[in-house]
Design goal:
- The chain is mainly beta.
- The protein contains 2 helices and 13 strands, in the order ββββαβββββββαββ.
- The strands form 3 sheets. The protein has a 5-stranded antiparallel β-sheet. A 4-stranded mixed β-sheet has the order 2-1-13-12, with no helix packed on it.
- The radius of gyration is 13 Å and the shape is globular.
- The two termini are 20 Å apart.
- The mean pLDDT is 94.
Length: 111
């Protein structure tokens, strides 16, 4: 699998997707792999992703994300496809402060 979380290979069904020259990853699957939870508001097209004390409000098509009251800007807008919201691979650094890097097709996320 193309994910390495805190030094361990993570088994996640959805692989990174390349779109418009940028890699995207499935928000819910990675938040859950990091011990968090995600809820989805279909009418607002917004996900609430909580890891520890931090909750990020991620809206389909918007680069502006509210993380527990602090506005952050993503490098590219999230998008929804097949009932999955995808975020730019560096979302976990921007929103939660994780160290992230993409090597080939593998995303590394660690504290």
């Amino acid at each position: 699998m193309p994910y390495n979380i805190n030094g361990q290979t993570a088994s996640i069904a959805e692989e990174p997707v390349e779109r418009d020259g940028r890699h995207y990853v499935p928000l819910a699957a990675l938040v859950e792999a990091l011990g968090g939870t995600v809820s989805w508001d279909n009418s607002a097209k917004t996900a609430s992703a909580t890891i520890g004390q931090w909750t990020a409000q991620v809206q389909d098509g918007s680069t502006s994300v509210d993380v527990s009251g602090t506005a952050v800007t993503l490098a590219a807008p999230p998008y929804v496809e097949n009932d999955t919201i995808y975020v730019p691979w560096d979302f976990f650094h921007t929103a939660y402060g994780y160290k992230t890097n993409m090597e080939g097709e593998t995303l590394y996320i660690h504290l």
